[in-house]
Amino acid sequence: MSSATRSILHVDMDAFYASIEQRDHPELKGEPVVVGGGANRGVVAAASYEARAFGIRSAMPMAAALRRCSRLIRVSPRMSHYKKTSTVIFAIFREFTPLVEGLSLDEAFLDVTASVRLFGSPEKIAAEIKQRILGDTELTASVGIAENKLVAKIASDLDKPDGLTIITPASYRKKLDPLPVSVIPGIGRETLQRLSAIGVSSVRDLRVADNRDLEPIFGRFTQKTRARASGIDARPVVPSREEKSISAEETYDRDLSKHADMERELLRLTERTAGRLRKAFLSAATVQIKLRRADFTTVTRQRSIKPPTNGTDQIFAIVRELLRTWLADNPGVKIRLLGVGGSNLSPVAQPDLFAADKARSPSVIDETVDEIREKFGSSSLGRARILDRH
Length: 390
What we know:
Helix content: 25-40%
Number of helices: 15
Largest sheet: 5 strands, mixed
CATH topology of the largest domain: Dna Ligase, domain 1
CATH superfamily of the largest domain: DNA polymerase, Y-family, little finger domain
Structural class: alpha+beta
CATH architecture of the largest domain: 2-Layer Sandwich
Distance between the termini: 65 Å
CATH class of the largest domain: Alpha Beta
Order of helices and strands: EHEEHHEHEEHHEHEHHHHHEHEEHEH
Number of strands: 12
Number of domains: 4
Radius of gyration: 24 Å
């Protein structure tokens, strides 16, 4: 790579959650392991490479995963533990560049264009990052190197696990053309079907397709999609990604059919969402609920609020009313999934101690609950209303 071009790394941890479980529990090494919810309604959050050999993938229903592999080992998620490991990994990234754009706990873009003078070539930087991660966490990562984010992300997936792949502009056609068109971001299942109907199955097919065939599918995004098929992407690495929303949701082993049960679960989810907002020092100006019926139909309802809040009681009052209004139009419905979220986020301002309106600041109860949970764990304390009366 010439010094006049950008040098972008996409670092993707290998089966992150599952690999942490195998690291912490040596008896799981070499075994088909999945991290996720229960067998009835849960989904796979992560699958070890041994499990992937059976065709098991993230977001697959747990019941389907168990059918594919009778000796599959399911482990419940330990999100706080995964976040601690993620913090170690991101600290390593920032030793090499301040331009780190995190996509999730286990995935990030790094712009190392200005780092090569200090640390050597992008390949050397990538190799050093991989070695540091292995030494500090006993986990492996796959890295893609390219001049832009799109191609770097594609590259990181070509040699998993523990890979390091470089794609230069001179090799775009050789490396990208044979790949399935699904590697292009934004092309989902329905679009794949429509592309298949016009004979487009590879990146090359998309790159050379006639605009008249593509415009009915992509509309005004046709030229942008063709550019991506040619490996063109001018997006910068953005190191400070603002939170767009904070939410919590849960899929239930048994459908919820009683109004009281739905409200109890809604309060439980509200506590989680509001607690996350307060921990991030954010307030939400829009509150929403997400509902998935037994037939998998998913709907959302939302309401704007002034002033923005992160208080549990304030958010619950709104989502409860949203739920009641929706149930009035859908009597007898059974719910498979519930979610509560806050969006249009803003930093919490320093409260006015003498103002009559204290809606912006959390209640004394919220503050006390947060402090106790921080010290003794998230399940140490909760409102009595969330307890099942049985």
